[in-house]
Amino acid sequence: MTDSIEKPVEDRTICFLDLTKFEQGEIIRGGCLVTDALTRPIEFWVSGVIKPSSIQKILYGDTLQEYISIDLIGVPLLESLEASPELILVREAEFLKLRQRVDMPVLWVRATVDGQYVLQALPGYENEAEAGREILPRRLRGRNIVEPFLRIRSAVEEAHQLSVGEQTRS
Amino acid sequence: MSPVVVEPGKRSARMKPAPVFPAKNPQIRPTSTHRFPPGNELKPHALTVTEQLDVLMLGQSSASPWDVRIVRDGPYELPCVFGIESGPEQVDPELLPVRTMGAVFAPSGDEKSFRPKRLPRSYKPVRKDGGLSAEQVPGPIDLLRPGLEPSVLGSDTADLILPKELRSAQIEAINALLGHDVFLLADDPGTGKTVAACVALMNQFQQHQIRRALIMCHETGLRSIARILACWTPGLSVTTVTGNPELRKLDWATPAHVYIVTEETLRIDLEQGVLEGDALHFDLILLDDVQVTGLRFRDFPGVLDQLSSDIRWAVAGALPESPEDWTGLFRFLAPEEIGGTAGISLMDVKQRFEKYFLRRTKEQMRSELPPRNREVLWLDLTDLQAKRYEEVLAEERHRLAQLGEAVQPSHIETALNRLQIANNFAPGVLDGAKVRALVDLIEQISASGAKAVVFSQFREEGVARLHPVLEPYGVLKLDSAEPEDQHQRILSAFREQGHWHVLLLETGVAVAEDALVEATYIIHFDHHWNPAERMKAELRLHPLIFRAVPVNIYEFWTAGTVDEELYRVLGEKNLLPGEVPEGTRPTDLEGRITLDEWMDAILQVPGREGPERVAIPDAKGTGILPGTAVLRSKLSELSADTLMAAVETLMKALGYQDVEPIGEPGEQGGYVLAWQDAQGGVDRVLVNYMASNKNVGIASARSLMEEMHARGDCTGAYLITTSDFTTACRNFADETEGQLALVSGSELYRHLHILGQF
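Above: the input entities. Below: the structure tokens describing the complete assembly.
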């Protein structure tokens, strides 16, 4: 984090991680977009199809969402990256627990009741939220922070339509 | 029992006691108790049922098999209608990891470069095993890139991706295009139509409305379109379909977002079946700079009829001027709309297609257009022109080399003039790359009703030869041979008579005191190296004090010639026309390029501090060689196999440990590949040996270099002949900075003689 703060804002790279659901939530795919400070894309990764069966839903129970988010989507996508982003931004709270598995800040972009967005870190890493805000380029402070997630969602939908990736074994 | 009625103020009677009955069997029988086993004593085991049970479940039909309790010999039975089969070997509860797929995106390449970019391809063609194959092919994730870029039309994101802000007229054009599957954008030339169309195209990709698009343009427009796409639509994979048939086949077959092609190339590829089947469908087809006048006399839409697409856009500099041209154009754009147009008037046909076009003039957009807009058009010489150009360049280099220290600026100017003339026209004809580009541009300008001035430095080799070329568009000529009293008459006719659209003007000829603001287009067909000379000519026509209709200025430069080096040097010195302050005098810039820079950096005259040829190591021996005739007869006696063996011996003597022939040796020669271990890897060279009685020319050297580059795995090449090389060929080898080495017959003989072959 110290290195990130010293790096000029325009040289920083940011990772946006999100998941998209299809077929009324039966199918899940993850997408990970690394951008430069202008949110121009540097790298993009998409997971294959994750389709838990009814038995698996029961057996995993409440742990299913976390397992999918962290072990099947988050960690594999981040491990695929060639770039080393300074910061990972997520829109699903489940991804926050990635912080325990990776060595870089993971911040949840949480919407507030008044339509603004705040950055929230995993408990125990609270100082990273404020530091993360400093890393963010000025133009991403505000509603613009959500825009790259829309691109991920759109790209993952297109990838799904084109059947990119292999089917999961479930 | 009747209800008790209590009247207010009255007391009720006392209730009688209820009867009492004894309870039967009041004792609760004891039952057995069992110690509940702690968790660690519980051994879960899979319930294995090996028989089929028919169980009927009443009520809740969504319960899974795990919710069913089957009690044997008990008082309750829950009948259900599905069979239960379970066994631990049939259930795999683990949710397994899935594959990830991704791509790292190359930077957009928006760094400043003073060279014309290569015509783009979405992949890299490589020659291997005698055939052409595609490397670095875009994968499915690469093709998602447009949607991952900031939106070109987002108010918060457009500035992140576009090189500059779109004008409101361009935004209006983009919205019109996006709102129609069929559309004609027909604004005046030079108002940014093609940029608007390309940005609209990018938006379609970003919204995932289209996946594959075709842009058809003129030959001279290929570079211009490629440049606009590179600047305004970063993230799109673009392939320019050009080159030999084998390469074009690979172009069509390799995935890309956008294919750029000329009508001629498209026609040939369709006729030869290079493009067929599903490849005939594009989600969007864009026709750039359509010549809408005289469509009825041309085969339009011609080959386009064989293509299918959902969205069809056209960009032109004017609207069609006859009903037949309208129906001709819309026969492609919207064939279902042209029914019943036979005999229709121009006004009616325009009204019928009203919803499908947008037309604005420069005058209408005046407030938002810059007063002067300058555009550099890079053009590629035709094969005939390139051959002649190389000859002239070789001659001039030789002449300047001979002059040595005595060379003066006037010698440089003479060389530049000869090269300019070679650039202007192919030998013996009124054709050439620049002529074609000029005709395409004048066609658009005259169709829009505007006027243009075309400058040339040369009277005979410029203005005079261009006159007949531009005659169909209404051209007047003013050169130094014209008597001065005629100048005013010509200028007045050009200003006042609407049918004169072009004034051919020799640079330096005065146009009297009056400005010529009627000409809103200026074209430098050829030009002095000094940008201030051009600006002086322009200012004479359009003085700064006039804020007339905006002027578009075009400069023709030729790729693959000395123009590239001159442009690079000017750019490094901030002397490109757009960078020189208005009002700079030509004399202010005269010494800015030194004689050494002219000789070394731009004209690359050999024998100075230029690159050295890679020399064959000096042989040790008697040094006694036979004369040329004997030499040639000795070498010509060698059979194809023996010559190849001799070449292999030579390459090994030069230090290459491994030598491998490529294909069978022919009577005329062949190829071998030679390599050796070097620091950092393998040093591999491609060798072309030729059995010939004539001196080998530059074409063979050029072809070998192309082959070498196409392979992608060689650091250099050797061209070996049993005869000798032309001067042009030797000069070409010098320019390769050591990548190409030449071995003449005498050198080959000397080495073989030393090695005991002769």
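Note for the figure: Chain A touches chain B through 49 residues (CB under 8 Å).
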